[in-house]
Amino acid sequence: MTHDPADVSDFEPFVDESRLRRDVEFLSAHPRSRRRAPDIMLRAESYVSEELVSAGWQVERQPFDLRWRIGATDQQGHRAIALKPRLHRRLQGANLIASLPGADNSTTVLIGAHLDSVDGSPGADDNASGVAAVLEIARLLARLPVAPSVSLALFDMEELGLIGAQHAARVLTSRQRVSGMICLESVGYFVDEPDTQRLPAGFSTAFPGAAAATEANGFRGNFTLVVHRKTSTAAARSWERAAAATSTGLPSILLRDPRPDGLLGMLIGLVVPPANHLGRSDHAPFWNRRIPAVMLTDTANFRNPNYHRPTDVPDTLDFRRLAAVTAATATTAVNWV
């Protein structure tokens, strides 16, 4: 069975801002880390699983036990993970993968967000906001008369260097075709005042179009950045249209990563720092496996002064705009072709 094309108006009326806030508040009551706070991480994992099951989803816990992995440190600080390298002797964690009963997931679109936070930060924006959006998307998609070919993922150990997403990308692609991936990475912090949006060093030279759009917007941090590649351009534009059609009229800036999918794109990122910023979350392992992917973000440390700090708390987030992000993402996933 197939579904009719979705419009953001099919989802937005059913997005509940109070539920988004409730989910963020529960998850960000304490920092979440498999290594530093395993009990809190298990608490968060149980909460997410229960919410997904309550919404009608089947949840699979995929544990992993990895040795000698190059990653990052999850200490507090504003530096990107690529600037905080660490060799991990052993990492034991688990991802959560969910699907709807009756859906044809031989080919699927994956929506994902990471569940962990850095040491000492409750991680309301980074990344309880993304997880809350995934949970609300689960509730939205469960309402559809025909179960869409969409899967959900909550990744472990993103803050240690995308460890969970790397494992998930390998496992999922070995058993089904993943036609696309949407990564929700720090999606709840917005500022309307000018000169609140910063750009990475070298960004204006490497990406003049996105830089010009940011400048024309008065360097206001009131938009969602949609990072994509050539293979996911259509999905990025679909998300832009859906977000603009929400009641908030949420603006977007599209940023195309010029690198190709696969190993070559990953290698280029190691030597071109502005490009490396575009692969700082869980979409990157899917790019590396030639899967079209987009990352949605409020740009994290380039906007949010609370990034990776104890002040990353729920009251700093804009739940009305997070609701718009949620509705636009559900729409894009269902319409992905």
Give short descriptive properties of this protein.
11 helices; single chain; eight-stranded mixed beta sheet; Aminopeptidase; alpha/beta; 337 residues; 8 strands
Write the layout of secondary structure elements.
Blueprint: H1 17-27, H2 38-54, E1 58-72, E2 85-99, E3 107-114, H3 124-141, E4 150-155, H4 163-175, E5 177-185, H5 203-206, H6 208-216, E6 224-228, H7 233-244, E7 252-256, H8 263-271, H9 273-276, H10 284-288, E8 293-297, H11 319-335
Parallel strand pairs: 3-4, 3-5, 5-8, 6-7
Antiparallel strand pairs: 1-2, 2-4, 6-8
Helix pairs in contact: 1-3, 1-11, 3-11, 7-11
Task: Give a brief description.
This is Zn-dependent M28 family amino/carboxypeptidase. By secondary structure, this protein is an alpha/beta fold. It has a single domain (8-335), classed as 3-Layer(aba) Sandwich (Aminopeptidase).
Task: Describe the structure in your own words.
- The protein is an alpha/beta fold and 337 residues long.
- It has one domain: Zn peptidases (Aminopeptidase, 3-Layer(aba) Sandwich).
- Helix content is 35%, strand content 20%.
- It contains 11 helices and 8 strands.
- The chain has helices at residues 17-27, 38-54, 124-141, 163-175, 203-206, 208-216, 233-244, 263-271, 273-276, 284-288, 319-335, and strands at residues 58-72, 85-99, 107-114, 150-155, 177-185, 224-228, 252-256, 293-297.
- An 8-stranded mixed beta sheet has the order 1-2-4-3-5-8-6-7, sandwiched between helices.
- Helix 3 links the parallel strand 3 (107-114) and strand 4 (150-155).
- The longest helix is centred in the middle third of the chain and has 18 residues, at 124-141.
- The mean pLDDT is 94.
- It comes from Streptomyces pseudovenezuelae.
- This is Zn-dependent M28 family amino/carboxypeptidase.
- Residues 95-202, 276-330 form the Peptidase M28 domain.
